[in-house]
Amino acid sequence: MIGKIKKWTKKNNNSSLILTKNWDEEKLKKNNFDIDKIEKNFYLIAKEIERELSKKISFQKLEISINLIDSNEIKNLNKIYRNKDKSTDVLSFPSGNLDDNFISKIKILDLGDIFINLDILDSQAKTIESNKEMEIVFLFMHGSLHLIGYDHLTEIEAEEMYSRQREILAKTKIRKENI
Asked: Which CATH number does the domain housing residue 55 bear?
């Protein structure tokens, strides 16, 4: 893994978001990433995920681990855990702890881990006429939705997930022009 593990916490009312980040900030700065904007937008998306989950499950803290890695690392994870010997843009690994009885005992909902491939951000962003900051935020949102059960294996699932992505972007007012 690149970087050092750091945690930053944002509190609201009775709940806290704990976003654990694992990335090399110096490498991001050298590649002209605005880390403050990325973190701000990660937080806005995580708040939407928290709001959705709080309607279904009672918890005091929500934790998500964010890992920014390279193509080789994501290819290895994809091969080991999904039996696919290729690189990808984002992988999500839910913790599987969405059981309300379990959460009520510990009060912390660890959603799981998101791994984002830094090496493809530029090319993927250009393909969709965006920028790498918007792409990294979009991949975080996409991965977060996978952590709470959304998928896109069927047309119906895909429309539901993509519709939720559009709702989150509209609600948070995240646009490529603002990043």
From this structure: 3.40.390.30
